[in-house]
Amino acid sequence: MIEMTERAAQHVREFLDNRGKGEGIRVGIRTAGCSGLAYVLEFVDIPDENDTRYESLGVNIFIDPKSLVYLDGLLMDYEKEGLNEGFKFSNPNQKGECGCGESFTV
Question: Checking DSSP bridges between strand 24-32 and strand 84-90, what pairing results, if any?
Answer without folding.
Answer: unpaired
